[in-house]
């Protein structure tokens, strides 16, 4: 029986080594590689194409959410499980919007992680019931759900300190188009000043 190949990316060495030991002791899993930063993880995952990549959200050089976004843009068959200490449903929503196939918190039992791996390989998104319920409530009440995907991307870049010119260059649109998006975004969110938009993005953890 072919083993499931797993890649692990996490900058917390003790946690990562513990997770690797558990994976290596599980008969149907095979460790395909590991990394401590997002850039290295991206390069190795593209080279090795594991069945599942388990990614920490907070990593140096490239965080797990941006790494997920780049992997999904390449249309790899690799499934992505986001592993994080964050219970915040806003962070969960960011991860899923980036393309994560599942989300699991770091204090979960290894049995839950194994269940998550098998679930995403069957093309089923994995969230535990508590996070799913909180996510449903958040989506029903969040004003951000009014935004288009392009508008969400612009808010995320604003949260990370990009200027209108830099956002335009990154998204291949003119700075005037970025200005127009800003106006629409602020109207939808009932904000009146650019500083309020930046604060909103920070409070909603859109800089992750």
TrEMBL record:
* GO biological process terms on file: phosphorelay signal transduction system; regulation of DNA-templated transcription
Q: Which branch of life, at top level? A: Bacteria
Task: Give all residue intervals belonging to the Response regulatory domain.
Answer: 5-121
- InterPro entries from the UniProt entry: CheY-like_superfamily, NreC/VraR/RcsB-like_REC, Sig_transdc_resp-reg_C-effctor, Sig_transdc_resp-reg_receiver, Tscrpt_reg_LuxR_C, WalR-like
| Key words of the record | DNA-binding, Phosphoprotein
Q: One GO MF term, please?
A: DNA binding
**Domain called HTH luxR-type: residue spans:** 140-205
Q: Which residues are annotated as modified residue 4-aspartylphosphate in the UniProt record?
A: 56
PROSITE patterns, alphabetized: HTH_LUXR_2 (PS50043), RESPONSE_REGULATORY (PS50110)
What is the official name of this protein in its record? DNA-binding response regulator
| Natural source organism | Pseudoalteromonas byunsanensis
């Amino acid at each position: 029986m072919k083993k499931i190949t797993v890649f692990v990316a996490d900058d917390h060495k003790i946690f990562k080594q513990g997770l690797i030991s558990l994976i290596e002791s599980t008969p149907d899993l095979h460790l395909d590689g590991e990394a401590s930063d997002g850039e290295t993880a991206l390069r190795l995952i593209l080279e090795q194409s594991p069945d599942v990549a388990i990614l920490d959200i907070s990593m140096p050089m490239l965080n797990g959410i941006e790494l997920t976004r780049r992997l999904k843009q390449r249309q790899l068959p690799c499934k992505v499980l986001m592993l994080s200490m964050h219970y915040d449903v806003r962070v969960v929503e960011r991860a899923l919007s980036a393309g994560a196939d599942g989300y699991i918190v770091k204090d979960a039992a290894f049995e839950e992680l194994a269940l998550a791996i098998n679930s995403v390989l069957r093309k089923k998104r994995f969230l535990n019931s508590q996070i799913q319920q909180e996510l449903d409530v958040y989506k029903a009440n969040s004003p951000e759900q009014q935004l288009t995907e392009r508008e969400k991307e612009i808010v995320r870049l604003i949260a990370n300190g990009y200027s209108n010119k830099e956002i335009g260059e990154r998204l291949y649109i003119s700075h005037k188009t970025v200005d127009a998006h800003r106006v629409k975004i602020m109207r939808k969110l009932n904000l009146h000043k650019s500083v309020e938009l930046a604060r909103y993005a920070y409070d909603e953890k859109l800089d992750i």
